[in-house]
Specification:
Elements (H helix, E strand, L loop, with lengths): L2 H19 L3 H5 L2 E8 L11 E2 L1 H11 L4 E15 L2 E14 L4 E16 L2 E18 L18
Parallel strand pairs: 1-6
Antiparallel strand pairs: 1-2, 3-4, 4-5, 5-6
């Protein structure tokens, strides 16, 4: 068992989520192979075509997760199988999205399915997709006591 590869892949996926939530697009891009494929879809977006290539994936995320969208992802239960310079992994995840411009709160959970490839400078995600267990949405207008007390991307006055 290649324990170093397992740890490297765990750190890669954690970096994927951290850089996504913090909108660190260059660092997020570095988690993918140049020819990566991403399959993302939600009830909000509907079924989407596969995003082909790192630039398409990063472009989609940076457009959809503008400063009016706050996200946090928590990943857990990794199951990773390494076979030489390739690997497959499954990750449980939970996500929370606050769409400040639309006054909406979205919560969900599911399982990612990833394929990884070891490149000259380390492991990268070659393909990623997920299956939702649930996704819920509520209007923050329906929760009059809701207050967003901190927002990293809010315009400071």
């Amino acid at each position: 068992m290649d324990l170093a590869a397992l740890e490297d892949i765990r750190r890669l996926k954690y970096r994927y989520f951290r850089s996504l939530d913090l909108k660190l697009w260059d660092e997020f891009a570095d988690t993918f192979t140049a020819d990566a494929v991403g399959r993302y879809g939600t009830k909000v977006y509907g079924e989407l075509d596969a995003l082909e290539g790192r630039d398409a994936i990063v472009g989609f995320m940076s457009e959809k997760l503008s400063n009016g969208i706050i996200t946090v992802h928590v990943a857990h239960h990794p199951e990773i199988d390494v076979d030489g310079d390739t690997a497959e992994g499954s990750w449980g995840f939970e996500d929370t999205v606050i769409a400040t411009d639309f006054k909406m709160l979205i919560r969900g959970a599911g399982y990612y399915r990833d394929h990884y490839r070891r490149e000259a400078d380390g492991w990268r995600i070659a393909e990623t997709s997920y299956e939702r267990i649930y996704e819920s949405m509520e209007s923050l207008d329906d929760t009059p006591s809701h207050q967003l007390l901190a927002n990293r991307w809010a315009i400071q006055q």
